[in-house]
Amino acid sequence: MMKRFTGCVVLVFGILGFTLPGHAQVRPTDTLESTENYEKQGPSTFTFLKVTPTARAASMGDAYTSVAEGIEAIYWNAAGIAKVPRLGYSFGYIQWLADTKFYSGAVAANVRWSTVVGVSVVTFQTPEIIETTTLQPTGTGNMVNTGDTAIGLSVARQMTNKLSAGLTLRYIQSTLGAEKLQALSLSVGTLLHTGFKSFRIGMSMKNLGGEQQIVTEKSSMPTVFHVGGSMEVLGELGDPYSLTGSLEGAYFTDRWQRYNLGAELWVMNAIALRAGYKFRYDEESWSVGAGLKGTFSGRTIHVDVSYSDFGPLLNTPLRLSLSGTF
Fold first, then answer.
1. Which domains, and CATH codes, for the chain?
2. Residues in CB range of 243: below 8 A, 6 or more apart
3. Segment 57-76, tens digit of pLDDT
4. Tens-digit pLDDT profile for residues 278-292
5. I want to staple 206 with a disulfide (CB 3.0 to 4.6 A). Which of 102, 107, 121, 187 is the partner?
6. Mapping DSSP to helix (H, G, I), strand (E, B) and coil, where does residue 225 land?
């Protein structure tokens, strides 16, 4: 029965992998994309969900779906949190574009029956905006608060010694002054250790949800399908020295198909050096990062930082993350 379930999961995601790329290229409506040679099908909303909230994933160029194991997988591929031993936590901060900021936090607990349950929060904050009207174009004296919030509940289970699966249900809210837009989204993922050396395959479908009515126009969720593979090309995880390589494809419903490449080098199993590159992106290209890991009285602590290049016209985002387990 378990082998049959495993085969079904792999088959379903395999079919999605073959069908979604073609669909993604029909609807590339990202505002940064070139407008040449495609027909705009409709916008997506809650675009803050596209931003990577953790430093480790960003520094590897978002080639992270098959690498994600532990508490920080809760943002990327929920199947990876099945590896949380007892209790895990994560906090993140992003200095984003145009003086905006992201804050994130998550906690997950291994309950029983090889099952881990977690809660996560991501908030996007912008500077206050001066309210203007047609009659008062220079300002009314009032300030308008804006921002976005996503609160998620994740459940993951270790189905076999090689396969884990997980899902995340999110409540999402976008605020512009007195106006609020609310929705629910679902993300599902799997992580499979193939048994060939350390090679593993990760697949996730993120931000599944219904259309939103914005004034007179309908807008869809920023749905994306990730499928990727990774393995250690030097040593093994936990060794004094190890090097992990990762490659994955990202298939969107509102922009072109894209590819991510990443690498992570561990030195003395305490210092991590990371790099990544994104293909077919307009502004984003390379990224680098580093991390420190320490174990104290059975408690593991990770501190990570990443730097992503957005070209000469945009400020460079800086990410900081703190995570650990008890």
1. 2-325 (2.40.160.40)
2. 232, 233, 234, 235, 263, 264, 265, 266
3. 999 999 999 999 999 999 99
4. 999 888 899 999 999
5. 187
6. strand
